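Hey, I'm writing a tutorial for new members on how sequence and structure tokens pair up, and I'd like a real worked example in the thread rather than a made-up one. If someone can provide the structure for the chain below, I'll link this post from the tutorial.
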Amino acid sequence: MSDENGIYCIWLDLHIGILGKYQTFKEKFQKSLKPINGLPPNSINNLILCFEQEVAPIKFVSNIDDALALIQNETDKRIILISSGSLGKDAVPLIYKNYPRVYSYYIFCANILNYLDWAMDYLHCLKIFDHETDLLIRLTRDISQEFIRLGRSYLAVYDGESARKCFVTAETLETHANDANSPNPPVRRCLEMLQGPNGLIEKSQNLKDDQRTDETIGSNNLLIYTIEDDTKLVDGITRYSNVDDLVDKLVELVVKKYQQQAETHMHEGQRQLADIEIRMANRIEYEVQKLRES
């Protein structure tokens, strides 16, 4: 599934990125293995292999110029950057300013305190770790949350199969994160949301195309994927003489905002979200027209 996600992961480290160095560590990332075949627990290898199989390929580089070349080459990808602290100190500010496609940063270092001064400006998109296992577990759980949000968005436009793929991937990632984190207690919150009766996986499996005819614009499902929180629909006050004109204007504004979000996300490489937003705009127009005809 990783080829479909539009995500690319770059690991920037002076030593790990040099060909032939830290080969054992790198091999953990580069073997090919399906994560759903009953792998033994308590293995960080499984988590790494699961990540590459389900989420994104990982490319190792040893200097900032090589990282920039990869970023510039992958114009249709959203990129995650993992970096050593020493290189990240220069790389993160530069990349953050110039390449919005790089949307998430993870720093791996020996001493977190040595890097807090510059990192404080980027805490909204950056996390720091002093152990590779902790970093990979957190990265995996963060990506799992992305798949859950994307799956919910697919539910909103009645694409049960795409939603199911997202939820099953999130389930796989959460399971391997728990295995890698043993003997600590497993984190069950996301798995409970995904699994069991009325879980998200079951909801996506039960979703049928003919539900479209039974839903209205006021349904809860329609509200699963909403306009971004900081979006303003109107900048001033307009008065309308009747309700129909008001509704028409509101529909026009909402549809326009979805279309604008789709254009932005397409530019950022988030093609799946852009597709959902276009479909949501079309669905709103469809539902309103259906109400008018009823």
